[in-house]
Amino acid sequence: VTDASYAEIAARILLDQGQEHSIETPHGLLHVTVHGTGNTRRPAILTFHDVGMESKSCFSTFFKFEEMQEIVKNFTVVHVDAPGQEEGAAPYPLGYVFKSNHADKRQAGLNRCSVCFHWYSFRSVIGVGVGAGAYVLSRFTLSNPDSVEGLVLVNIDPNARGWMDWAAQKISTLTSSLTEQMLSHLFSQEETSGNTELVQSHRERISKAPNLSNIELFWKSYNSRRDLNIDRNSTLKCPVMLVVGDQAPYEDAAVECNSKLDPTTTSFLKVEPMCHLLLPEIAKLVKQ
């Protein structure tokens, strides 16, 4: 085997595993994994995961699809983990709380994306977010329209929680474990009732997570979100792909979001359940 072949093999290993960085922010330590070329002249692909997941469980399968391999080879892919959510993260000390008021919670998500954006000197990004991550990236885009060239938003809910949602959540915290609440957020009722192998694997992953208390903090923060206040006069300026699973918990919210975006720059895709895992069909569309 030639030296060039060894170099190519080493490069592929590095590309597959990514380079991990920890960045200090005013809102906690930010764990970031970078794959790809490091070319700042092209837009980077910036991902943000959902509650109950982290970047690896949310996106690793998606970026292994053949359709995404060419993108990874030619673009920088940056996976951002919310503070305390990364795989193997230590639990926060007892009594630790996120910023207590709504403005701070909202700004925290923006600052995480902004810090990452400026840390790597990106000219622009293409955002891929799921659930809570879709919300964070949307708000970042509304505040920084010139920095985002496109968005892929999976299972987005742009609305603040209403009183009925608040009451239902309070009851849920009394009757269901945090793990079951996470599963109800990630999967449709049909999927959780079927208790498939996939649901079981996520149940085991979440219930045995050493940072379960951190996950609960992220969950509470997401449930305290403000409305994005999107309408045709105040909307996302970049091209947007909305993706939602059939009978997914946030199907109605995604449909409502679609009605408020510019139809000339928005595409809407409804897929079979389990779209939070980002199916190959989505990978093909992202590549296009």
UniProtKB/TrEMBL annotation:
User: Which domain of life, per UniProt?
Assistant: Eukaryota
- InterPro entries with a match to the protein in the record: AB_hydrolase_fold, NDRG
Task: Indicate the family of this protein.
Answer: Belongs to the NDRG family.
The protein in question is named Protein NDRG2
